[in-house]
């Protein structure tokens, strides 16, 4: 239910307030009374008014001063003010009322229909303003909802649903940017390709649900050892890629061994099954291997990973770029 519209009426004489409310009894609004300027200012702190009707001549603070104070306060600076006066009807005082911030100056005696019409006019303006505020607020909520939905769609498009890591689409974007940065500024950039050893046997022996748990847990372990500037990706199945900006081969070896040991030393247990896993890791470095294209760096790490598998698994191998032709050759068949 919409809040009732409120109108502030200010006059130091209670009889005048009663008469004014009687004249406006057909107007659907709540009339808040004040018998002085200070009382009116206090009411303005607690209510949001559609209109203020002020007497001019009042003790301590006249209507002109009150109007100026209302105009000087940010919250009430746009509040419509109507002056009612039985004493001042000359041009000087009328213009003084307008200069004080009034939108109208009505002298007594006045025709009730005229005042009622003006009050209804400002009530309608107030209603339209409130409706506009609600519309703007609703549009802002809709905008924020759309932005959040877009963020969620972007995340779904660029992140792996199971692990929360970035996916291959995001990998292509990040690789292009980071390789270009390394090429332009001569900075280090290393790439780790990781593959869980004998993962197919996990799915075959314990089921895909436990296999998914192992994938998620391994991804979580990867993240615990990375810096905020590093990037992690699920490349596919049980394969992962880690991109390490500002990191040479020695630094990449340290990071890789930390991940390998973490995987080896802590069993994967979900309360139903508990198994030990190992991981094989291949490393390639942009400055060491100078790949022509971003994908070539992945190819180099992939070859190093293959050698790690071929050499017995559970180890870290750095790509040897003696031939410098990794981009032109097809890697041998991958072992599990």
TrEMBL record:
UniProt modified residues of type 4-aspartylphosphate: 55
One Gene Ontology term of the molecular function aspect: diguanylate cyclase activity
Taxon lineage: Bacteria, Pseudomonadati, Thermodesulfobacteriota, Desulfobulbia, Desulfobulbales
UniProt record, GO biological process: cell adhesion involved in single-species biofilm formation; negative regulation of bacterial-type flagellum-dependent cell motility; phosphorelay signal transduction system
Residue intervals passing through the bilayer: none
Cross-referenced Gene3D superfamilies: 3.30.70.270, 3.40.50.2300
Enzymatic class: transferase
Chain coiled-coil ranges: 129-156
Pfam families: GGDEF, Response_reg
CC annotations in GO: plasma membrane
Record-linked SMART domains: GGDEF, REC
EC number from the UniProt entry: 2.7.7.65
Protein name: diguanylate cyclase
UniProt domain GGDEF: residue ranges: 187-321
Catalysed conversion reaction: 2 GTP = 3',3'-c-di-GMP + 2 diphosphate
Keywords, comma-separated and alphabetical: Coiled coil, Phosphoprotein
Domain Response regulatory as annotated: residue spans: 6-123
InterPro entries: CheY-like_superfamily, Diguanylate_Cyclase, GGDEF_dom, Nucleotide_cyclase, Rev_trsase/Diguanyl_cyclase, Sig_transdc_resp-reg_receiver
């Amino acid at each position: 239910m919409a809040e009732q519209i409120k109108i502030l009426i200010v006059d130091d004489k209670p009889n005048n307030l009663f008469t004014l409310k009687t004249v406006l009894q057909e107007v659907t609004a709540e009339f808040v009374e004040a018998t002085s300027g200070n009382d009116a200012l206090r009411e303005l702190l607690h209510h949001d008014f559609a209109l203020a009707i002020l007497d001019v001549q009042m003790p301590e603070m006249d209507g002109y001063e009150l109007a100026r104070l209302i105009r000087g306060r940010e919250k009430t600076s746009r509040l419509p003010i109507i002056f009612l006066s039985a004493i001042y009807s000359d041009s000087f005082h009328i213009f003084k009322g307008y200069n004080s911030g009034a939108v109208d100056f009505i002298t007594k005696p006045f025709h009730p229909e005229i005042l009622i019409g003006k009050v209804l006019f400002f009530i309608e303006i107030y209603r339209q303003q409130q409706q506009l505020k609600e519309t703007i607020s609703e549009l802002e909520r809709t905008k924020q909802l759309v932005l959040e939905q877009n963020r969620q769609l972007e995340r779904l498009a660029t992140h792996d649903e199971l692990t929360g890591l970035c996916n291959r689409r995001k990998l292509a974007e990040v690789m292009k940017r980071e390789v270009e940065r390394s090429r332009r500024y001569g900075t280090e950039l290393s790439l780790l390709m990781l593959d869980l050893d004998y993962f197919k046997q996990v799915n075959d022996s314990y089921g895909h649900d436990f296999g998914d748990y192992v994938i998620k847990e391994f991804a979580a372990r990867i993240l615990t050892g990375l810096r905020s500037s590093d990037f992690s990706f699920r490349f596919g199945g049980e394969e992962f890629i880690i991109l390490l900006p500002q990191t040479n081969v020695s630094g990449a070896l340290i990071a890789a061994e930390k991940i390998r040991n973490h995987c080896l030393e802590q069993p994967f247990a979900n309360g139903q099954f508990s198994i030990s896993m190992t991981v094989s890791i291949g490393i390639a470095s942009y400055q060491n291997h100078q790949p022509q294209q971003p994908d070539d760096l992945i190819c180099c790490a992939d070859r190093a990973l293959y050698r790690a598998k071929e050499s017995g698994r559970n180890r870290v191998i750095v790509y040897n770029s003696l031939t410098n032709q990794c981009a032109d050759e097809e890697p041998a068949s991958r072992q599990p």
